[in-house]
Write a structure and sequence with these properties.
There is one protein chain. This protein is α+β, with helices and mostly antiparallel strands. It has one domain. Helices cover about 35% and strands about 25% of the residues. It contains 1 helix and 4 strands. A two-stranded antiparallel ribbon has the order 1-2. A two-stranded antiparallel ribbon has the order 3-4. The longest helix has 28 residues, at about 55-80. It is elongated. About 5% of the residues are buried.
């Protein structure tokens, strides 16, 4: 089971209600809790919440991917030298 917080915010008088893009194992925010949101002024549907763990997850996947590519390159060089 994953928890996806739903954020409600207002942009130019229009109230928007959007679900976070990344879920977590347990709730990271409580119902009614105020959090900072950074909203794209050109696309109000796009927002970033520092309370979301998506940035951390993205960094982990990038790190693991970079590690895999590095290992593959090293193995390729070593095997070609034999």
């Amino acid at each position: 089971m994953s928890w996806f917080p739903v954020y409600e915010y207002s942009v130019h008088g229009t109230v928007l209600r959007k679900r976070a893009s990344v879920g977590t194992v347990r709730p990271e925010v409580s119902v009614g809790q105020k959090v900072n949101l950074y909203v794209n002024p050109n696309h109000p549907d796009e927002f970033y919440s520092p309370a979301d763990k998506s940035a951390f997850v993205r960094k982990v996947f990038i790190g693991v991917g970079a590690l895999c590519v590095s290992v593959a390159l090293v193995l390729g060089v070593v095997l070609c030298m034999k």
